[in-house]
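Appendix B. Chain record.
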Amino acid sequence: MKDLPPVPEDRETLGDAYRELLGKALQKARHTGALLHHVISETRGELIAMGRVGEREIAQLEHYLKRDLTDAAYYLGRTGHELADWLGFDAALTERAFLTMFSEAANKTTAELLQLRIQAYAAGYHTGEMTGLGTLVCDQCHGSLCFYKPGHIPPCPSCHNTRFHRQSMV
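Structure tokens predicted for this chain:
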């Protein structure tokens, strides 16, 4: 989300709305089994209807909440450390109920990201398809194809195989 408008003066109300957005979305995700990020987007209308925050503010909060959860989930999945390590300070300094709620949401996001990664890996990448930035590794000879901009996937230059998977640093 580019060029976000300035945060309104009433930061405490926005903090409460951030917490409420997370709580309502997490509760819905628990009951429906839907992806948390999808439910966050669906829940924003409820908060707008309550009249405590406007459309622009809730769009900001949705962006910030998704960013925070994705960042925490990525950290947890990559390092195997605890959420307290991601916080960068003593977790005892935070409100216990919110920490518990955020932790559950981050763990759910971690599981969702892992599931998406497994699906992407299983689907693989094939010659003739488009891909974005990154490095693809040949499933046969393990040669690399680097994409510095979006482009079509060619056959492997080394062995002419047509199936690849994404290389990651993790």
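Further analysis of this model is presented in Appendix C.
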